[in-house]
């Protein structure tokens, strides 16, 4: 993932990379050479490089097991920290990072790059306009069959833990609400090449009464959905459907009825307002840096992103126990 981060930093243009850390120092040296970072220092020791360079920002792209220690070290050194997802390996660790960032007076934000896709922004803009009324339910399907090899095929709760955070965060963004309960199931089809949790379904309840349903599989061959899922968003006055690619459609209720059904008409999907930040990693990084320079808090700040992480762990807890789980943060 580091290449995407270096490319985003280069695109922004006014960031000086002063150090690059990797447990294998030669990999840090290779990135420095690849991106012509002549003044950057390569190291295999984070504490040492933080002390030597005294940076303003720390970009955390480590494996999840190392996240808590990495972010804690950055905050202690006085850095604002931008992390890859997931925010933490456990809710206790996530809560601790929120506490540490608050105590340090620093920003810790998380890369939820999917919510910075132009189409998701357009849908959120349409919902906010009131075109379909209040959101009453969201439904999405995610069906792919990738043969990753490596750790994903061995990890438990692979779909919920490694991928669904993107979809859950998008649902929370589109609904403009926080989930407070979930019922979930996981299963392993006979054709699965994963160890556990490749197929799953979940029903989330939001605080305002809206429902979000998720159906997914990482061992579903044929008729693939987008990596962003296929969506149906139902409102009190109409519906939006999105194929996860470029096709967004909407209909809203008009006056009168057509037999059994209310009359509806197509709703124009307006272009994205220029005030909306897009660009995946680039968009997240731009918002994060603007915040460190006195701008508004990034929408993926830890204190907000922990609400999406709680949906993941709530779903896993429900799948393990077979019970409806209340989500608390």
Automatic annotation (TrEMBL):
Signal peptide: none annotated. It holds the Pfam family GFO_IDH_MocA_C3. Residues 120-241 form the GFO/IDH/MocA-like oxidoreductase domain. GO terms for molecular function: nucleotide binding. It comes from the Bacteria. Gene3D superfamilies: Dihydrodipicolinate Reductase, domain 2, NAD(P)-binding Rossmann-like Domain. Residues 14-110 form the Gfo/Idh/MocA-like oxidoreductase N-terminal domain. PANTHER family: CONSERVED EXPRESSED OXIDOREDUCTASE (EUROFUNG) (PTHR43708), OXIDOREDUCTASE (PTHR43708:SF8). This is Putative dehydrogenase.
């Amino acid at each position: 993932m580091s290449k995407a981060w270096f490319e985003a930093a280069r695109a922004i243009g006014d960031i000086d990379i002063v150090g690059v850390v990797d447990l294998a120092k030669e990999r840090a040296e290779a990135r420095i050479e690849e991106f012509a970072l002549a003044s950057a220092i390569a190291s295999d020791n984070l504490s040492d490089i933080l002390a030597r360079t005294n940076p303003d920002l720390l970009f955390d792209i480590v494996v999840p097991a190392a996240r808590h220690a990495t972010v804690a070290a950055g905050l202690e050194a006085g850095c604002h920290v931008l992390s890859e997802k997931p925010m933490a390996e456990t809710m206790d660790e996530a809560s601790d990072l929120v506490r540490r960032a608050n105590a340090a007076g620093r920003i810790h934000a998380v890369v939820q790059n999917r919510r910075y896709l132009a189409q998701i922004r357009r849908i959120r803009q349409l919902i906010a306009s009131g075109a379909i009324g209040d959101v009453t339910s969201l439904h999405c399907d995610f069906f792919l069959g990738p043969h990753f090899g490596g750790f994903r095929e061995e990890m438990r709760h692979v779909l919920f833990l490694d991928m669904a955070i993107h979809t859950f965060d998008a649902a929370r963004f589109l609904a403009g609400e926080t989930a407070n309960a979930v019922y979930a199931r996981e299963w392993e089809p006979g054709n699965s090449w994963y160890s556990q949790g490749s197929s799953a379904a979940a029903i989330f309840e939001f605080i305002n009464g809206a429902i979000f349903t998720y159906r997914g599989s990482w061992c579903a061959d044929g008729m693939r959905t987008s990596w962003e899922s296929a969506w149906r968003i139902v409102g009190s006055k109409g519906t939006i459907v999105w194929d996860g690619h470029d096709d967004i459609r909407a209909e809203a209720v008009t006056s009168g009825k057509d037999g059994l059904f209310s009359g509806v008409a197509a709703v124009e999907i307006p272009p994205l307002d220029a005030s909306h930040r897009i660009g995946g990693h680039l968009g997240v990084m731009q918002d994060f840096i603007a915040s460190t320079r006195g701008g508004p808090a990034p929408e993926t700040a830890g204190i907000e992103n922990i609400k999406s992480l709680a949906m993941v762990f709530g779903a896993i807890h429900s799948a393990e126990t077979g019970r409806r789980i209340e989500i608390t943060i």
